[in-house]
Amino acid sequence: MKSYIKNMSRAAMLIAAMATTSCVGDLDVTPIDPDVNTVDKALNSPEAMAQALSKVYAGFAVTGNVGPAGSGDVAGVDEGESSYWRLWFVAQEFPTDEAVNGWGDKDLPTLSQVSWTADNSFTRAFYYRSLYQVTLANEFIRQAAAYGTEYADTDRQVGEARFLRALAYYHALDMFGNKLPNIEEDKGVGAWLPQPWGQSERGPELFDFIESELMAAIEVLPAAAEAFVGQANKDAAKMTLAKLYLNHAVYRGQEDVAYYQKGKTMVDEVIANGSFDLMDADDVAGTDAYSPYEFNFLADNHTSNEIIFAISQDGNYSRTYGGTTFIVNAATGANKDNMGGGAWYGTRTTKALVNLFEADDARALWFTDGHNLEITDQSLFTEGYAVTKFKNMKRDGSKGDNASSEFVDTDVPVYRLADAYLMAAELDIRINGSVSATSLDMVNELRTRAGVGAVTSIDLDFILDERARELYWEAHRRTDLIRFGKFTGGDYVWPLKGNSLPDGGSISAHYELMPIPPSDLNANPNLSQNAGY
Amino acid sequence: MRIKLHNLYSLLFAMMLYILPAHSWAQERAVSGTVLDETGSPLPGVSVVVKGTTKGAATDFDGRFQLLLNNGEDVLTISYIGYTSKDITVGNQTSLSISLSPDADQLEEVVVIGYGSVKKDDLTGSVQSVTAADFNQGAITSPQELVNGKMPGVQIVNGGGSPGAAATIRIRGGSSLSASNDPLIIIDGVPVSNEGVAGMRNPLNTINPNDIETFTVLKDASATAIYGSRASAGVIIITTKKGSKGGLQINYAGNVSVSTPTQFVDVLDADKYREVLVAQKPAVEGLMGDASTNWQEEIYQNAISTDHNVSVAGNIADVLPVRASIGYNNSEGVLRGDNLQRTTATLNLNPKLFDDHLKVDASVKFSNIQNTFANQGAIGAAAAMDPTQPIKNENGEYFSWTNPDGSPINIAPANPVALLNQRTDVSAGNRVIANAQLDYKFHFLPELRANLNVATDRIMSEGETVTSPEAMFNVESLGKGLRTEYTSEKSNDLLDFYLQYAKEFGESRFDIMGGYSYQHFYTENTGREFLGDEAERGVYVDRYENYLVSFFGRANYSLKDRYMVTVTLRNDGSSRFAPENRWGLFPSAALAWNIKKEGFLAGSETISALKFRAGYGVTGQQDIFDNYPYFGKYTRGNEFATYTFVDPATGQIMTPMVDPNTGRNVPYLSLRPEAYNKDLKWEEATTYNVGIDYGFYDDRITGSLEAYYKQNTDLLNTVDIPVGSNFNNRVISNIGSMEARGVEFSINTKLVNNGDLFWDLGFNVAVQDNQITQLTQVESETYLGVETGDIAGGTGNRVQIHTVGHPAYSFFVYEQVYDNEGNPIENMFVDRNEDGKINDFDKYHFNQSAPQVLMGINTSVSYKNWEFSASGRANFGNAVYNNMAALNGHYNDFETSGQFLGNINANALETNFNTEILLSDYYVQDASFFRMDNIMVGYNVKSLFGDSINARVYGTVNNAFVISNYEGIDPEIFGGIDNSFYPRPRTFMLGVNVSF
Predict the structure, then answer these.
(1) Domain B28-105: CATH class, spelled out
(2) Which class for A223: exposed (0-12), middle (13-18), buried (19 or more C-beta within 10 A)?
(3) What is the pTM of this model?
(4) What does the pLDDT read at residue B31?
(5) Which of A14, B89, B166, B307 is the most buried (most CB within 10 A)?
């Protein structure tokens, strides 16, 4: 009996002692989930580095780690609304003559009205999305230096990351100006406060950084002919540089013709290298159900040689409620069967865009059944024509591959040869005051493809209108209107501008820049708000 | 051994005598005795004190004691925890045999606290306990329903009328913003995880309410701080019924109940619909059908439920107290198809071995749950579906809105009946909680106890959802069908060990306890889905774990049974934090003054109890839903979130890697760096509490009054961080503080107590509020705060906000403008900042979702064999956002695109709104209410068929009625947003208890 009790107390003591000593060590945990690893275990192979780089790309195409939604990258916004291209499209198109949306989503109506306030959810979300892309690229570049030194592809991959970072910064610069935070590459994660790039909204600091990064990336990026569809290439970097130069007077706050000349050089190189070819009658096969212009906006637009750089979208592998899924589905209503995606009854266009087109222009792709041209109520989808330019239909008339057809296959055409043609013509005029014969021919190539008459002389106003006709809904419009001085003020109005119907009204000049989100101003005292907010 | 121990005791006894005051040596006489329990077994450790002095002894191992008495010292007070104290007049006896009988009120007198129990009189903290006799009655499937309304400051809100629905429990309101506000729940000494389990409605409903003996709530920090880092939201200790003394007794309890829906969302019926639609939207009247369907009546039913419990309790061969029970519950929900089946089995063994030196409490609780979930999407759909459409069309197919091409319009309301019938959702789960608690009283030192508790809690569940190929409400699976499978496995392993030393020294009593606790939580969730015959997809395996290691101690000191001091300290280590922040120290101190025992009150006839308590303590919070928040990680994305490269030569998507979850070739699966915060640490709550416990007229009136102030600092809070400094724009951080305060009062009265007629009446009330005192790193006057409170309507719309200087979850809306008749004017709001524009800066803080006053009232009457009881609750100062009216209460909701119709909320007829106005204070409605939770009438049949059988027959009505001005379906909605709420039914129950 005694020994029994003794043994028992000994056992109890032993258990207690063992538990106390060994189990404090259990507090040092490492992930046990097969999908989660610390960085040293995660980035242990060339394949893993490719996966890490693919996340930097994926941040432009999808919204998180689980498609279509469930583990979003950006907080504080509905995940579907946090898509890079959805937000960029919303910011570039909704405040212009090209698109109106009437959903009751928080802060969405004020975008079409150009009456947003400092804490607008969509401008905030794009701020965080674009700078998240910068942060992701920084991380990849840092980790490539730590874990990728022995791999053959690392230099090229770092070049791709630098291009993608520059692209995100470029879009952010366009929206928020030169006072954006400088997310220094070597800082990493921690309690540090980024400094603004510059002290004034318009200035050279961020512009110069993007320029030098793109120049460096061009050296290591693959040529377009050697790149996969969806992969960064030299011409994508050159087009971004050309855009930067073309808009330099806005971004830097003063005009310098030298930048137009640099821009022209870039555009000329892209056009001249022969990788790209305007989709026209020569490209049409017997099975095609659409016109060559539309090939650029269909579910199988990866077959279009006209696209210089696209963000890949795939209804199965890249499921998202953003990107082209948003563009197509939000524009779809009763014409669902001809659009190939879901019907979300949201976005349509204004009479200001429709009226720019001549009667037979093949680029005027509207669905008008049941729709009025006039908009008297923003919330009614049937007021304003529905736009059928982007579709989830393949060239042969079949639907995209996703079984539900809810997720769209159509790649995002970021840069097209047609855009390069129009940029060349515009740069000619901005440099020389008139368009060169070559550039004029290229503009007429576009017009001929569209089935409208060639022009003999063009000026800047024509360029702006032709850009709308050729490039509408390709997320260039707000930038273009600002460059031409027509976005704010009352010189040029369209329905809903200044929250005014049916024709639109004047808006304050401060809307040329989007507000820095108050949430970041609160978190980082180094930053300051753009004027007017 | 026995002899040697005896010698040791003799030695100790001699030493004790030696240290007794010298004056007591005069003219003594010796008296010895044995103290026995009611079964005749010796009781060791019994206190034997000479009445009126500090002199005394404790009985030894054999229940024996010896004392030397002076002249005039003639009365001994014999007392022992759990037994009725006795005064014995010694007279001429020199050898006494004293038997103690168990205190009938034992369970009321001894209160379980963290790592032990304490006499109620000795309590220093704010602890409230409800025992089985006082539980709510009726058709109760979840344990927390047993005590709803019984304790001031304890708010229990179930998630709706679904059987066994999860409930939200808030003790003294919430005090954390991003971290958990759920109290720590401890079942028979086993702290269980609050985390939900896939396929289980509510982890707590795996415990059969019939097996519960006590439900104790530790409220203030001096009581909870012994649980340190998990105690900030309060602690609930549940103990289950155990074997009793005496022979085996068999008890059967069973009932059958009928639940009936009490209220529907106020939408237009078919006739009214036709009239209003034709007037408002004549352009689309052609879309109307010929039917008259009340969709809400179609989806709800009268639900029948049964409950059977058999238990055997007793003491086998007088050595093995045992209780075993089996329970079966089958509950239907009022939403058609909703069903919960629960089978439970428990076994409690509580033997005392080695002459009661080793006390063993072993328990196994098993439950099997079979759920059939009704598709709750039908609730919102029934309020939005056009009532002129038939359930099925002439082809016998469910009516559905379609595009011209015949495909379903997926933004149109789905057919509610199809939602119920064309999707099955079932799950099954098992849970076992097993523990063995060994309490060993050292033979050589009975004042010293060692307590070892080893426990495991395991949950395994699996479920499957099948959508029919015919279901028009799922565009993707149409024609194919969709099957989703999931599993969940959780374990929670515990080892607690402590030593406790208790000693009395004359008028002083103290006990010191020190211990160690180790707990490991593990979860694995898996899932996959199958679209038609296609290969599995969406495969995931999630695994995570966390550990808590703790050291704790408590010291109680009591002087003259009047002055009590308790000090506790806990040192907690959590695997959720980096080594330098990992350990948190949580102290508490409390004192109590039992004023009744002071001379000036001792003789009072009026005041039968009076105690003052004051406490202070620091508790923590580490439950942040992320198990690895402090270091960097990369997470692999799934196959649907990849970036595709297309080979221009082939037009094919590149699939260069193999998905480890499916084995298929896929594009590169993303590796995403995750945000982390290496500086993360405990959230801390400091609580001050004062209280008075009182009793009047021989405790015919009892109760307590308490006041508390609580300050939470270093709030674990998901906040905006400087963009670029981490891999997310919001990261969990220790930023912010808030404070809460409140007053609680309870009174329980025995109004009548005369042989045949008993009438008890109890009432409690809590007044509470909270305020956020800091939210951001940088102070900002213009910062409005963190918006919260997602609503239905648009995307991203929210109606609540956390703002410094206001309560958490305050409503934040526009101020509606009304016309002369008092009707709201559509889209017209007050320009509160007078800048000529209506924007975010015109919103204002208007009301809050948490009640400011909570009341509970209960009464019971028994007359001879009849009994009657009733209990109810009231909340005041709480508001609910009537999302159903805001979302559907306007005429444009009749049609969205000219393609389909929807029903509108009848509120539109009052407002005449055409468009959706979501963010108006018009929809934030006062939701103060009184709810009669249950009414019971019972009849006791005593001595049926001789003496051996007792029976009770009773009937109850649960959720008898609600009084409220709130216009929506139910004013009691946790979080304050009324959107597609599963209505709470009224339930009529007939029950019988038989014991023999």
Answers:
(1) mainly beta
(2) exposed
(3) 0.86
(4) 84
(5) B307
